[in-house]
Amino acid sequence: STITENTVSVQGMEIQMTTKKLGNKFKSVQSLMGKEMIQLFDGEKGYFDQMGNKTDIPADKIAELKKGKPIDALAFDASNFPNVSTEKLDGKDYNVLSSDKGKFYFDAGTGLLYKTNAGEGNATIKSYMTVDGIQLPAEVDAEGGGQKMTIKTTKNVINSGVTDADFKYKIVF
Q: Where are the beta strands (DSSP E) in 11-91?
């Protein structure tokens, strides 16, 4: 399991975000000016709740969410990347995994993910932090839907503080 606390800077605003993951389950709570937006997936179904407007996660997204992992890198499956190459960026070598989902650039020296160019957007990992011996992204510059944002992780907790109760699907009337 993981608990991640981030500050997302976008369009001059700072959004506080806490995400809990357990297996393929997740709950993300984003807070902005006293309002909360929640994304929840209980392993089978889920919803988005934006200021009281709740919508179910579309069925076409569920299969992909079921493959989720507490640490995103654990979800990489070599069989999904038929094309592997080496490219130079800014004078450094990167191993590049390519698929219909996009291109993923891994630093040839460290093995760490550096950059993604995917359908939903692009991201560059600026720095990592070590938590319980595991390297996790600390600062990420991302761009998607015409918006640029910086995501700074303030806290990561591994294998503590998360239970199945965190992912109860609540029906709201």
A: 13-22, 25-32, 35-41, 46-50, 53-56, 83-89
Decide if 14 contacts 8 (C-beta within 8 A). yes
* Residue-level pLDDT at 75: 79
> How large is the C-alpha radius of gyration of the chain?
17
Average pLDDT, the chain: 92
**For 45-53, which contacts have Cβ atoms below 8 Å and span 24 or more sequence positions?**
45/169, 46/169, 47/169, 49/172
Q: pLDDT confidence of 172, banded at 50, 70, 90?
A: low
pLDDT at 61: 92
Return d(Cα 96, Cα 81) in angstroms, integer.
Answer: 10
